[in-house]
Amino acid sequence: MKRLHPQMLLSSTYRQSSIPRAKALKLDADSLLLWRFPPRRLDAEAIRDSILTVTGMLNRQMHGHGFYALQVIRENVHHYYAKEEFGPEDWRRMLYAVKIRQERDGIFGLFDCPDGGQSVPRRGLSTTPLQALNLLNSGFVMQQAGLLAERLQRETGTDRQRQVARAFELAFGRTPSLAESAESVAFVEAEGLTAMCRAFLNANEFLFLF
Q1: Which terminus, N or C, of the chain has the lesser number of Cβ atoms within 10 Å?
Q2: Gap between the Cα atoms of 195 and 197, Å rounded
Q3: CB 131 within 8 A of CB 160
Q4: Residue-by-residue pLDDT tens, the chain, 210 positions
Q5: Do the beta carbons of residue 184 and residue 165 sit within 8 Å?
Q6: Rounded CA gap, 152 and 193, in Å?
Q7: Residue ranges of the domains in the chain?
Q8: 172-191: b or e for each residue (b if 16 or more CB lie within 10 Å)?
């Protein structure tokens, strides 16, 4: 299999762009004939770890005890509630999240992340309003947006254009166009740097593979 993987990854089919072509869309909108890479949203774990990576908060420690994505109240039985506060102990890779049967992560469980109560050979892929609302308004994302703003200020100072350029580099892996830079600077001046960071962490370009 390992010898087969390089042949697949280096093939012209695998390396095709996701850019749509009008003629091809008309003939094969679902890309069943593999004429382009269909845009695909990141899995729940990848979304969370990508957010932490961009903000510089991802704890890359290996091995050891996992962390609870839910708040645990230990009485005669354990009760689990959505967390409202997050700290460094919660910023490990999601690989180390303790899976609790029949309980889903309060934020990323909505992104088709299995609850650990049953075997899931193939993960579903849905798009719902609750996903967008949760990611936009969750305490975790709000906190991380603030931490990203602090990182931008720490690395670029108070220059708005440099802040915007660094944000594009971290979140999207590219430099902004002149129009994007101007619009982003105007947005930061009107709404604040944290608001822009929050928008970037919710952008399709950040959440999807194209």
Answers
A1: N
A2: 5
A3: no
A4: 899 999 999 998 888 888 888 999 999 988 888 888 888 888 888 998 999 999 999 888 888 887 767 666 677 776 666 677 777 777 888 877 777 776 676 677 777 777 677 777 887 788 888 888 888 888 889 999 999 999 999 999 999 999 999 999 999 999 999 999 999 999 999 999 999 999 999 999 999 887
A5: no
A6: 9
A7: 41-127, 134-209
A8: eeeebeeeebeebbebbeee
Cα separation, 87 vs 46, in Å, equals: 19
- Which residues, 6+ apart, have CB-to-CB distance to 64 below 8 Å? 96
Residues with Cβ within 8 Å of 94's Cβ and at least 6 positions away in sequence, in order, are 44, 45, 48, 49, 69, 108
At position 60, the amino acid (one-letter code) is R
**pTM to 2 decimals?**
0.80
Distance (Å, whole) CA 200 – CA 182:
15
| Dihedral over Cα of 12, 17, 22, 26: its sign | positive
d(CA 154, CA 65): 32
How many CB atoms are closer than 10 A to CB 200? Answer: 20
